[in-house]
Design brief:
There is one protein chain. This protein is α/β, with parallel strands linked by helices. It contains 17 helices and 13 strands. The protein folds into 2 domains: 186 residues, Rossmann fold, CATH 3.40.50; 154 residues, Glycogen Phosphorylase B (Rossmann fold). A 7-stranded parallel β-sheet has the order 3-2-1-4-5-6-7, sandwiched between helices. The chain binds uridine-diphosphate-N-acetylglucosamine.
């Protein structure tokens, strides 16, 4: 019987651990999985709602580390997770994605010589100003097993000197959750609640420090969105990081004059999926949404200078337009003018990635 610690900490982790935990639980004679929630995200609408909707069992342990600077948050996670590792002596620690919890738990386990597996390995933006890029590179460098969502991930890892026998191309676990939850969107009345019609609105999400923390960049984006909302409703579920910035009186005034720009608090998984599925376009700086839009066949405009998910661009769904008004306007115009190409779903984004991961673990 193998003791497996599966770590989740922040919102984008929950849809990745859900299918993996379910697959592990199908083999009770082989694996004894325990779910560890670091508490990096803790608000009900950033965490609990995902557990309910994705039917994730209550975590075996909630570490409650909360927010802080990078060093504070990473340090608190490491201190708390070291105790967990010493008590449980895991045969394997599984981390997912690229958030601070991912890297902190990988380092902690590795220094205690417990094997580490990283799901969503190999993605690279080559942008070292992104905290996630540091988290990805460090986690991959020390992981014993690396599960990649796309072939470019394998190439990146090989180029960095990771031995080929540690790398397993398994596809995208996030899409396992998406395909499983998609039928629920048929009966949701999210569009009515938001006051929008199928194909006549866009969704917007912003949370990257590069977009949200710099007042000049942030207000430039909000201005373009206010302008665009005169021809297309925009539903904007506001991330806590962006919420504070909207208190600026000038931005508050701008929003008041833009009734088509509809702000909500963070949405649950199925509501967000329902909106994205029915949107004319998705405007985002999130990595996960670039992937989800690709599978839903909805054009995505990425408000960043780069993406660690080039496969979404190659698939025809995603355009990376930067975070300056001119680029955003041009990208949006191109979609609204109907310059869309056909969208291909990347290899192994088929709802079976978690099964492939557990097959590899069983073989080992
Ligand atoms: C984190 C991840 C990012 C991921 C994002 C998804 C890192 C470095 N960043 O960014 O990769 O894409 O989550 O949302 O790990 N806050 C709340 N309630 C919460 C959580 C946070 O109000 O439940 C507020 C706090 O003021 C906090 C701020 O949001 O300081 C930022 O949270 P944090 O976890 O540090 O980073 P995110 O921007 O959410």
């Amino acid at each position: 019987m193998k003791n497996v610690l599966l770590v989740a900490g922040a919102r984008p982790n929950f849809m990745k651990v859900a299918p993996v935990l379910r697959e592990l639980l199908k083999h009770p004679d082989t694996f004894r999985p325990q779910l560890i929630h670091t508490g990096q995200h803790y608000d009900a609408d950033m965490s609990d709602v995902f557990f309910q909707e994705l039917a994730i069992p209550k975590p075996d342990l909630f570490m409650g580390v909360g927010s802080g600077s990078h060093a504070e948050q990473t340090g608190r996670i490491m201190i708390a997770f070291e105790k967990v590792c010493l008590e449980t002596k895991p045969d394997l620690v599984i981390v997912v994605g690229d958030v601070n919890s991912t890297m902190a738990c990988a380092i902690t386990a590795k220094k205690l010589c417990f094997p580490v597996a990283h799901i969503e390995a190999g993605l690279r933006s080559r942008d070292w100003t992104m905290p996630e890029e540091v988290n990805r590179v460090v986690t991959d460098a020390i992981s014993d097993l690396l599960f990649t969502p796309s072939r470019d991930g394998d190439q990146n890892l090989l180029r960095e000197g990771i031995p080929a026998d540690r790398i397993h191309f398994v596809g995208n676990v996030m899409i396992d959750s998406l395909l499983e939850q998609l039928p629920k969107t048929e009966t949701r009345n999210t569009l009515r609640q938001c006051g929008v019609e199928v194909g006549k609105f866009a969704t917007l999400t912003l949370h990257r420090p590069a977009n949200v923390d710099d007042p000049q960049v942030f207000s430039g984006i909000v201005e373009v969105m206010a302008e665009l909302s005169r021809e297309l409703d925009i539903i904007w579920p506001v991330h806590p990081r962006a919420r504070k910035m909207l208190e600026d009186p000038r931005l508050a005034g701008l929003l008041k004059d833009a009734p088509g720009l509809k702000l909500t608090g963070p949405l649950g998984y199925v509501d967000m999926l329902t909106l994205n599925r029915n949107a004319k376009l998705v405007l985002t700086d999130s990595g996960g949404l670039q992937e989800e839009a690709t599978v839903l066949g909805v054009p995505c405009i990425t408000l960043r200078e780069n993406t660690e998910r080039p496969v979404t661009v190659e698939s025809g769904a995603n355009r990376v337009v930067g975070n300056r008004p001119m680029g955003i306007r041009a990208g949006v115009r191109s979609v609204l003018n109907g310059n869309e190409c056909s969208i291909r779903i990347p290899e192994f984004w088929d709802g079976k990635a978690a099964g492939r991961i557990v097959d590899v673990l069983m073989r080992r």
